[in-house]
Design a protein that fits this description.
The protein is of the alpha+beta class. It has helices spanning 14-18, 41-46, 51-54, 57-63, 132-147, 186-194, 198-212, 222-243, 294-313, 317-328, 331-346, 355-371, 376-387, 392-395, 401-412, 418-424, 432-443, 448-457; strands at residues 23-25, 35-39, 75-77, 81-83, 86-88, 96-103, 109-115, 154-166, 170-180, 246-247, 269-270. Helix 6 packs antiparallel against helix 7, helix 8 packs parallel to helix 10 and helix 8 (222-243) runs parallel beside helix 11 (331-346). The protein starts with 13 loop residues before the first helix and ends in a 30-residue tail after the last helix.
Length: 487
């Protein structure tokens, strides 16, 4: 069905209107020479925004915040957060603005949000700007995650501002236009609770229920139901991350959404050699946010959400704590269920196969992969060939051939389906060496490597001739990979 693009743009300002205590009206800084680098035309169509208009000078002004649409009230959002375990009572959008909300073609309310648009009252000494490469990274990784079926914020556009950004060297500046079902975070609730204004906390919770978890409104205890819905969505999200080897890298409470979408693509990467201790963030020296620690960190963050919600759960604090603990204790089982369901699919096993058979099989496989230093993505994609009668593509990755053979016989006895495996095991992910290659070129105004990589990772399950280098692990001389927060 064709959709007529908008000729005029109209936004809403529901967040700013309903939760003014969490919103500071603000304007984006001037971009002296804005130039569109990337435009997500399919997402634009979903938002009922004409790509041809977004490419026009007026459209580019919208994408950097200079054109404020009818109904919009650009605001910097206030939130708190635990960063690497340390509490910061006042974080907020230091270099970002919520332009407002727009209703997409399916009738869903979506945030349109800028990143790198200049200093706000929450900037905490920063310049509020962003460089081209980190904004291209967020565009690339978020769209890859979307193609993998993982809930995520989306990237609508990256616009070069024409203003240099001072980091270790002078870098070209950019603004990312991001789209999400909202930007409510655990840190939003921490901030509201810290104000001592229980009415504000209640209004924030009601806003979250209305926007993300409407079924909670029908529960006897709507705020406990909200908490349980967030637990469930986060358990599912973290399992999906780990099934494809994604390492978020900065799981602070201000980076955990109430919607269950992935947010903040700074020091993130996809694991190559399987190792639960994998860390890519340059600042995570203790491994707090390592690949294998992500479920535990998610549960810790959810405990902080519970603390913020306590006054709404029950008038008696002890009973409120008991309710929160009872709900939070279910996270581990919900994560384990989502993980096992996902691993059954990765291994091509029917849902009816007993978990008692699958869990030991997965545990033994994890040990084999780690001990043999096997590339996570390549292995699962090659494994489907074994179902078709050729074990060598996967077997050839291992030093411990006997161990692989024993495991494979047990697995094949469960009658896996290759077609199921090919639907969930990607061929193409944003390989770290290819990401760096594309970002380096993009910083020098050559977007061709990025566009080619985007083409691969946004259609990740279908093998295509000519894209072999996008399926290969990093060369041995690539070295240890580190990512940075991108501020």
């Amino acid at each position: 069905m064709s959709v007529t693009p908008r000729q005029t743009v109209s936004f809403d300002n529901q967040f700013a209107r309903e939760l003014g205590e969490l919103a500071v009206p603000w304007q984006a800084e001037d971009a002296p020479d804005p130039r569109l680098l990337l435009l997500n035309e399919s997402l634009a169509a979903e938002l009922d925004l004409a790509p041809s208009w977004l490419r026009s000078p007026e459209g580019v002004r919208l994408l950097v915040g200079h054109l404020v649409p009818d109904g919009a009230t650009p605001v910097a959002q206030a939130y708190a957060g635990h960063q690497f375990g340390g509490y910061s009572p006042r974080l907020g959008d230091g270099r970002a603005l919520l332009l407002g909300e727009i209703t997409d073609t399916s009738g869903t309310r979506m945030d349109v949000h800028l990143k790198g648009s200049g200093r706000t009252p929450f900037a905490r000494g920063g310049d509020g700007l962003a460089a081209v490469a980190p904004m291209l990274r967020e565009y690339l990784i978020s769209e890859a995650m979307h193609a993998l079926g993982i809930p995520t914020t989306r990237s609508l556009a990256v616009v070069a501002t024409g203003r240099p950004v001072q980091r270790e060297t002078l870098l070209p500046g950019a603004v990312l236009t991001r789209v999400a079902s909202s930007h409510l975070r655990v840190g939003s609730f921490q901030y509201a609770r810290a104000t001592g204004d229980i009415d504000l906390l209640r209004r924030l919770a009601d806003h979250a229920i209305s926007r993300h978890h409407p079924d909670a409104a029908e529960a006897d205890n709507r705020y406990l139901a909200l908490f349980e819905a967030v637990i469930s969505s986060q358990a599912e999200l973290i399992a999906r991350w780990m099934l494809v080897g994604f390492v978020h890298g900065v799981m602070n409470t201000d980076n955990m959404t109430i919607s269950g979408e992935t947010i903040d693509y700074g020091p993130c990467a996809f694991m190559e050699v399987f190792d639960p201790a994998t860390v890519y963030s340059s600042i995570d020296t203790g491994g707090r946010y390592a690949y294998g620690n992500q479920p535990g960190v998610a549960q810790w963050n959810l405990a902080r959400l519970a603390e913020a919600l306590l006054p709404l759960l029950h008038t008696d604090e002890e009973q409120a704590i008991a309710l929160a603990v009872g709900s939070l204790d279910r996270f581990s089982a919900q994560f384990a269920s989502a993980w096992t369901t996902g691993m059954k699919a990765k291994l091509g096993l029917a849902d009816t196969v007993s978990t008692d058979l699958v869990d030991p099989l997965v545990g033994e496989l994890s040990t084999l992969l780690q001990d043999n230093r096997i590339d996570h993505t390549s292995f699962y994609r090659r494994l489907s060939d074994a179902v078709r009668g050729d074990t060598e593509p996967a077997r050839g990755l291992f030093m411990d051939l006997a161990g692989f053979d024993v495991w494979t016989r047990r697995w094949l006895a469960l009658e896996p389906q290759a077609e199921l495996m090919d639907q969930v095991n990607p061929i193409y992910i944003p390989r770290n060496h290819l990401v760096e290659e594309a970002l380096a070129a993009g910083s020098d105004a050559d977007l061709d490597p990025l566009v080619r990589l985007l083409d691969a990772v946004t259609d990740p399950f279908r093998e295509r001739p000519g894209l072999e280098r996008y399926a290969d692990p990093a060369p041995t001389d690539f070295g240890r990979y580190q990512t940075y927060c991108g501020t």
